[in-house]
Amino acid sequence: MRTMMSTITLCLLLAAGMAQAQPAAAPPATPAAVYEPVRLQAGVWDADISFFDPASGERTGGAKGVQTNVLLANGHWVTNDLQVHGPEGAKGQPTFQGHGVWGWDPVARQYVDTWVDTNDGAVRTDYGFWNEQTRTLYWTALQPDGNGHSVNYRMTEAYEGNDKRTLTFYQVALQSGRLVKLAEMRFTRRPG
Question: Are 82 and 97 in contact (CB under 8 A)?
C-alpha cells in the first residue's frame, strides 16, 4: 500500500511539474491593420488648442503647442510628448507638459494609453477602439480625483487624411451622463 501511495504521489508531482513547465499560450496573431492608427501618429505636430466653458459650451480661450510622437521600432507603440505655451501665441517655457505611451495591447485586445501631465495628480489610463471607416479613435478613461471619486472622460481623435487630426476631450457629467466638451486640439503634421 505504501509503495502504491508513493507511486501515486510521484505521478502527481511529475504531472504538476509538467503543467508548470508548459509555456503560456501566445495571444492570437494581430492583423497588421490594427497598427495603422499608431503609425499615423508618428512625427512632429503643431497643435491649435481651444478650451470650452463646461456650463455654456462657449470657447473660453486657446493655446498653441507642439506634440512630438516617436514610433517604437516594431511600429506597435508610440510615445507622445506635448508641450503647450501659454495663452494663444505665447512663447517661452511651456505652461503645460504631457507624456503618453499608447498602442495596441494584444492581451487586452484593444488600444491602451497611459498618460501623465502637469495638470493631473494621477496617471490616466485610456482604453480605445479604432473605427476604420471614419478613421476615428474613441477613448474612455476613469481617473481618480484624489477625493475618493473617479472622473469619467471620453476622447475622440478623428483623422483628416494623414496630416491633420482633431482630438476632442469630454468629461462625462456625473448625474446626467451628458458629454461636456472641455478642449479641442487641432493637430497639423510638420513636413518631413
Answer: yes
Task: Check: CB of residue 85 under 8 Å from CB of residue 65.
Answer: yes
Q: Quick check: is 66 in a domain?
A: yes
Give the CATH number, domain containing residue 150: 2.40.128.20
pTM of the predicted model as reported, rounded to 2 decimal places: 0.80
3-class secondary structure, 101: strand
Here the cell at position 2 is: 505504501
* β-bridge partners, 129: 138
Q: Give the C-alpha separation, 185 to 50, whole Å.
A: 6
Whether residue 42 is contained in a domain is answered as: yes
pLDDT tens figures, 114-166? 999 998 778 999 999 999 999 999 999 998 878 888 889 999 999 999 999 99
CA–CA separation, 69 vs 14, rounded Å?
A: 50
Is 9 a residue whose pLDDT tops 70? no
Amino acid at 91: K
Residue 83 lies in a domain: yes
Half-sphere exposure of 124 (CA within 13 A, CB side): 24
Q: In angstroms, what CA-CA distances link 101 with 7, 52, 78, 138, 168?
A: 53, 26, 6, 16, 18
